[in-house]
Design a protein that fits this description.
Chain lengths: 325, 327
Amino acid sequence: MSVYAPDLDTRPRPSSGRGRRSSPWTWRWGDRLVLLCAWAAGLGLCLIAAAIVLYMGYRGIEYLRPGLLFARPAISTSQSHTGGILDPLIGTLLLTAIGIALAFPLAVASAIWIAEYGRPSWLARIVESSIEIVAGTPDIVLALFGVAIFQLGILAPLSFRAEGGGVYGRSFIAAGAMMSLIALPPLFVATRDGLRAVPTHMREAAFALGKTRIATIRRVLLPSVRSNIATGVTLGVSRIIGDTAIVVLLLGKTLHIETQGSVPAINLLRGTGSTLTSYVYDNSPAGEGAAPQKAYAAAFVLLLFVLALNLLVDKIGSGSLTSSV
Amino acid sequence: MKWLRKPWPDHRAERTLGAVSLLVGVVVLGMIAFVGVRAWPIFAHNGLSWLGSGGSLQTQLANMQATSVNPPAAAFHLRAWPLVYGTLLSTGFAVVLGVAIAVLSSIFIVELAPARLRRVAIPVIRLLASVPSVIYGLIGVLVFVPFVGNHLITASQKASVQSTVELTGAGLGVVVVILTVMITPIMIALICEALLSTPRSWREGAVALGLNPLRAVLAVTLRAIRPAIVAAAVLATARALGEAVMISMASGGSFFTPSLSHGVPIFLFEPFRTLASAIIDFNEGIGAPALSATLYAFAALLLFSAFVLSIAGYLIKLPLRKYQVRA
């Protein structure tokens, strides 16, 4: 399934009889109308995408100042005193790192197991359908699931504790754990499909040299699907960066990154914070902030990240086409 | 880390990897169990009739929020029809519009566009799919809503429904337009893939029989990939059902049920809420047990629909395997 990476084939499609192609002007009216609609739909979507990027770019350049990136947010009624987006920026990076760090071993291990072992087959089918279920679950449901598990007594030390000792199940760890579920499916699918595309003779050659299955996987197969894994990671990162629901419910969307406890690093992970997405949400008229200029600036930074990740996917993808095994 | 460096015996590697893979299954089971258990009070007190209409949802949720740790049974009373209706309405319109646009633009990309244009169109449409929903929501609430509110809704239209609802511009029309843009790229990806994998000879046969190239695509290729189109629509439905943030920002956040009896233009301007956007809107009140059970009940319904839709998508795609068409 190419749900996560709308992976459209760019192969030129041989047209039927170029040179003697029938001219649309001789067609029936109905056909001409369909032709017109198809062109309008295709070009329309491209124009919408261009309009989004250009509009956000225009607003971003209008409101984004380099100082904003390095200033911490502050509370003020005037938009000129509400500070910058340093904390949300750090929050986004931290959450992405946690999410990928958790998702990577899980996704790659299951992809290897499914593609290379996969026995018994009913178990393999269960694992594959579980991942499909995770992929189909709305992020808001995953967020509520996260709230439910991180409010449990045993997991309470992992999350932020309110003044009265109430556990809300909100922390970087909680949000990162749920983010890893969002990044898991694209990473899994990319790795599995990459492994399946490796020709059998490479495995046979390794076996003939006396390598065990796992040694073949580590020395031969994994190096050859590196670019697939990289694509999967990039897709996972772009899904984590763009997610709002999990942040709003599980990170607490506090203005500053608030630490919890005194152990360095751990207190950060147990603390709450915000990300670019929750910052945009909060400062839009839908949230309480109502600072549209700051929202535009943060959204522009977010869109730049997304654009960069998109370019990266294209680059990795095309690289693997020319240098594949 | 020494044990990692040493070559593993094969059976141990297999078991370790298998165990790690099973974790995903455990997570899914845990998710179903947790959401189900948390949602149970609502089902226990209302049965399935909480999906129906009756009373004001606004006051019901306010009552839930007001009760503290030990809510009386009456606090669990819930009739969430406005949310179910809003979800069905926005998803239905967006998917119908989206399928039409996705089929047309897939034909454009695969059959009509010159190669140079196609090379631009594909990444650009892929970009549409990866724009975060909060950016769509921001554009909706800061660009579309004021535009619709100031220019498209006339003063007389506002006055005609003043007694029941205030029209600000945020509402069904804006949400459907944005939601369509959000779900179309997924459908395009699936439909394009199916279009590309139908045997070329089928279409060539149709052209040889005298059909023009476009009609050949419509008559032969499109008919062959009908299951893929339905499967794409099903997948897009699942996406639209779960969209929370954009709708929470652009729908106007009201328990109003848009009604056709006000006339079509006003119908499109009326605010509403969906199940998913209500979870976002009320997440602050999750400390109140009754309200929390309600939100988990919404989540359980979304989870159940996503599950049913993914099974439906799988079953629909089965006939395609016969022709070895990937989808």
